[in-house]
Amino acid sequence: MRQLLTNNKLRATFLSFLVMMLSSLLSVCSPIVKSATVEDRIDHFIYQEPKPEKVVYLTFDDGPSAHTLDLLNLLEQEQVPAVFFVIGENINNVPNSGEILKEILNKGHYIGLHSMTHDLDKLYNAPDAATNFVNEMLEVRGKVKELTGFESNLCRPPYGGRGHFTNSHYQAIKEAGLSCVDWNVDSLDWAKSSSEEILNQVKKDLEIADYPNEVVLLFHEKKLTLETLPQVFKYYRDLGYVFMPYYDGDEFECELK
Ligand SMILES: [Zn+2]
Predict the structure, then answer these.
(1) Into how many domains does the chain fold?
(2) How far is the CA of 27 from the centre of ligand 1 (A)?
(3) 45 lies in a domain?
(4) Is the domain of 142 the same as that of 223?
(5) Could you please report the per-residue DSSP string of 178-244?
(6) Does some domain include residue 36?
(7) Residue 40 pLDDT more than 90?
(8) Cys-Cys link to 130, which of 36, 168, 208, 256 (CB 3.0-4.6 A)?
């Protein structure tokens, strides 16, 4: 009897040790699921911590559009997260834009701000350009919040902030608590007329950027882009890059500050 008790005790101790070892091993190996920043944002994508060595943030400018829902389907199939930088005037003009914006969040992606008008002169050249810039970003943020409940602080300056921002822009953005990010690889998809041209441009620009560990990749919501993306995803994955979801508070290496 005594022998049996000792054996049972030993077995129990061994088992609890095993459970402890397994759970600590699992907590080391399993990727961290970062909690959603809004109720509507479902964590479809696994947030990896520490960050993989080579990452890509996929970004789409100038939506919402007639192609957004098709893009979302493709991204779901390919398990690629993205940031959609939206324009206020498009939210006003595209039918069902509220549904589209909600779907972006429901599929686990992020919505960024891309001004109301996309107007070069108003945003950069007018005497009160810096104020216009911030006001337009806050206005589109308000629209997104009204339609989805989601409040974004991340901006993509139309035409890129680098080369356009003045000191007043940097100051106004900081005061408004916004962060701005350009891109370091440009697909120039808006100017290309075939998938091959887009893919070649993406490859060429990645080479010019010297294969950075953090790529911020710029696309637009176009039919040809949709057709080209599977090849782009394969190209990056073959090079060892991981497509990363963006969460509030994450910092881009190439943030404009
Ligand atoms: Zn744009």
Answers:
(1) 2
(2) 41
(3) no
(4) yes
(5) -EEE--SEE--GGG-SSHHHHHHHHHHHHHHTT--SEEEEEEES-HHHHHHHHHHHHHHHHTT-EE-
(6) no
(7) no
(8) 168
Q: What is the pLDDT of residue 16?
A: 52
Q: Which residues contact 92 (CB under 8 A, 6 or more apart)?
A: 143
What amino acid occupies position 57? Y
Q: Residue 105 is part of a domain; what is its CATH number?
A: 3.20.20.370
Q: Please give the Cα distance from 13 to 160 (Å, whole number).
A: 61
Q: How far is the CA of 156 from the centre of ligand 1 (A)?
A: 8
Evaluate whether residue 60 is within a structural domain.
Answer: yes
In a shared domain, residues 124 and 248: yes
Residues pairing with 219 in the sheet: 60
Which residues sit opposite 242 in a β-bridge?
A: 55
Distance 90 CA to ligand 1 centre (A): 11
Coil, strand or helix at 171: helix
Q: What percent of the chain has pLDDT over 70?
A: 82
Neighbours of ion ligand 1 (CB under 5 A): 61-62, 158
207: CA distance to ligand 1 center in Å?
Answer: 23
pLDDT score of 248:
82
Higher pLDDT, 21 or 107: 107
Distance 28 CA to ligand 1 centre (A): 41
